[in-house]
Design goal:
Largest sheet: 9 strands, mixed
Structural class: alpha/beta
Strand content: 15-25%
Shape: globular
Number of strands: 29
Bound molecules: ligand TNX
Radius of gyration: 26 Å
Length: about 625
């Protein structure tokens, strides 16, 4: 048996790879396959002692010089210079590597995180913050708190929910999902809690009145659920620190500052099994977030079952060695991935609804469609010659507006999805179509001539308006990333756009008359690292953002009243390229997710980072990894 080991090191301007074998074999005619979030620049790179045998986006196969023989004791050393984005963080490097032998079979290489001389230990797990605790533990902080005293910490709450049994059922489900080994509900001997209807309260509002019995008033199940979540948070706080209490008297009045408090999750770059999604929804609810933007397709995968096109998931949901989709982003040679069946999606939507969360699906079109086009190659223009590349270096990855089969397929797919997703909104992506998209396609050229335009932006706008008409006719509001305003743009009357590339963009979109969800990469992209240092995991194209900076960001700072009238709310965006493991996910997403949740809910005058920091450590994380390093 032969064992391969790949060591890698960052040397100021290059990655040095050292491939070794043990055993008596002599291996020739092989290739080394790898891929990280970082990608070798197609146009500007140089390699020492290797050549690129093939490359698509982040996936690359390197070949040794002609006649090279790999034997024990004499490793193959390769230098790679020239990455599309400079290597800034340790998670940029390959997370997996394998050797493709001359017969085409793949052997996994043992790999450890890339080394860098002088680096501090690599950070993993949720950052623990120091702060100044208030007397009660609630995130996001309520609109009015007027409480006194403390009662002894109970064995749980004994909840009389005869007016809203659904809210209690959801709360029970939620605390079981998140805190199975903590008793927050004690059906026999806890503090009595009574749910009382107050139809004067707004949909997500609630009031807590503390006395012998704690009263939770609300007008909807979601309002009751939010009141119970605040109680649950206070109890967990009281159990964790003596400064934190369950008050003896007084009231908490609470209602959100914004109606749209979202979180986006990219399940295309990495697949998250249904159980992870369920727990994630529970975490969103615990943060009183109410919109789940589910990014279901991208270049690297298609994740939703479509009856009319089984190929989308048979082919598009799986990556691996020898498969139509290469193991992008370092997912290794084995077949990995997955998709959500319609049954699972219905269950997820119902669970989300019980938590007060609306699930907004996204199919990212016309760009970011590599996986879809690999699964459905008949959607390409057969006469297209030459290649254009997306920013992530996928060739010809955009659905072609000049091909009628594209529109037919999309209407079939969207019709199935509309039957599945009850949300008022349907998000169609629209981001990052390259400027020269379709420039080698006669079909696109014919359409451009008919429309008397040129360039990709007006073609994309034409394409999107056609999709939007279909969605509008079906009673949906079209959601999209900010680029849907380009080239003439979609109809502002039936859309909302998410501003992401720069902080000023959202305001600009609002000035153009679009409803806007604010999600700037610089503050709300939870794939960006927490600090600029190498030892922190994450990406960097939009910079980096500490929990404090994310918390401090004011989404409508400097906007006029007319612009602010277009502000729908805020959204955390979780892009999954750097999520190479659960401990990395927990480091990047938490506690910044809660920081965005508090900005979405709490009026800015009532925000206080020292308070937030002290309470943030109590918030649940998806995988339960908390940082081990002291600050
Ligand atoms: C840009 S944000 C993208 C995504 C990447 C993300 C990484 C957006 C609409 N497009 O495809 O995953 O940057 O931060």
């Amino acid at each position: 048996m032969t064992y391969f080991t790949l060591a890698s090191e960052w040397l100021a301007d290059r990655v040095r790879l050292t491939l070794s074998i043990t055993g008596s074999a002599a291996v020739t005619g092989f290739r080394l396959a790898l891929g990280g979030p970082a990608r070798i620049d197609l146009a500007h790179h140089s390699l020492v002692n290797a050549r690129i045998a093939s490359q698509i986006s982040t996936y690359v196969e390197l070949a040794p010089p002609e006649g090279f023989v790999l034997v024990a004791g004499s490793p193959w050393v390769v230098d790679i210079i020239g990455f599309a984005d400079a290597m800034k963080h340790w998670t940029d490097a390959a997370a997996a590597a394998f050797v493709i032998l001359a017969d085409g079979s793949a052997e996994l290489a043992a790999i450890s995180p890339i080394m860098r001389a002088g680096s501090a230990p690599y950070r993993r797990g949720t950052m623990q913050l120091d702060g100044t605790p208030p007397s009660i533990a609630i995130i996001p902080w309520p609109s009015a708190v007027d409480v006194n005293g403390a009662r002894s910490t109970p064995t749980g709450f004994t909840i009389d929910a005869s007016v809203a049994p659904g809210a209690l059922a959801a709360f029970r489900h939620l605390v079981t999902a998140l805190f199975a080994d903590e008793q927050l509900i004690d059906d026999a001997n806890g503090i009595p809690v009574a749910l009382v209807a107050d139809t004067g309260l707004a949909v997500e509002a609630y009031r807590l009145s503390f006395g012998e019995t704690i009263r939770v008033e609300a007008s909807t199940d979601t309002g009751f659920l939010y009141g119970l979540i605040s109680l649950g948070q206070m109890l967990r706080g009281a159990r964790s620190a003596s400064a934190l209490t369950i008050p003896a008297s007084g009231t908490i009045e609470d209602a959100p500052a914004n109606g749209f408090r979202g979180c986006h999750l990219d399940v295309a770059r990495r697949f998250y099994p249904v159980d992870d999604i369920r727990r994630f929804l529970a975490i969103l609810a615990w943060n009183k977030l109410n919109r789940f933007h589910w990014h279901l397709s991208d270049d690297e995968a298609w994740r939703v079952e479509i009856d009319a096109y089984p190929q989308l998931t048979e082919i598009g949901a799986w990556r691996g060695h020898g498969l139509p989709l290469e193991p992008f982003l370092g997912t290794g040679p084995a077949r990995t991935g997955g998709f959500y069946t319609k049954k699972e999606i219905r269950e997820i939507i119902a669970l989300a609804a019980s938590y007060g969360i609306e699930v907004i699906p996204e199919i990212d079109i016309p760009g970011h469609c590599h996986a879809m086009l690999v699964a459905l190659p008949h959607l390409r223009d057969p006469d297209e010659t030459g290649a254009y590349y997306s920013i992530q270096a996928f060739p010809n990855n955009c659905l072609n507006p000049g091909i009628e089969a594209v529109h037919e397929a999309l209407e079939t797919i969207l019709a199935e999805m509309l039957a599945l997703f009850p949300s008022r909104w349907f998000h169609v992506g629209a981001d990052e179509v390259p400027k020269d998209a379709w420039s080698h396609s006669p079909a696109a050229a014919r359409l451009a001539a008919d429309l008397r335009t040129n360039g990709s932006a007006p073609l994309q706008a034409h394409f999107l308006r056609r999709i939007q008409s279909f969605l509008t006719a079906n009673g949906k509001i079209t959601g999209a990333w900010e680029e849907a305003a380009h080239g003439g743009g979609v109809d502002a009357g039936h859309s909302y756009l998410v501003g992401w590339t720069r902080t000023e963009i959202s305001r600009q979109l609002a000035a153009e008359g679009y409803d806007v969800v604010v999600a700037p990469g610089q503050a709300y992209y939870l794939d960006m690292a927490n600090t600029p240092e190498w030892h922190e995991p994450g990406s960097y194209w939009a910079g980096w953002s500490s929990p404090e900076a994310t918390y401090a960001y004011e989404p409508t700072g400097g906007w006029t009243a007319t612009e602010a009238a277009r502000f729908k709310g805020v959204q955390a965006c979780i892009w999954s390229e750097p999520m190479i493991g659960p401990e990395i996910f927990d480091r990047l997403v938490f506690p910044r997710l809660s920081a965005i949740a508090e900005t979405g809910w709490t009026a800015s005058a009532r925000k206080d980072f020292a308070r937030f920091a002290a309470l943030s450590n109590l918030m649940p994380t998806l995988y339960g990894h908390r940082e081990e390093h002291t600050k």
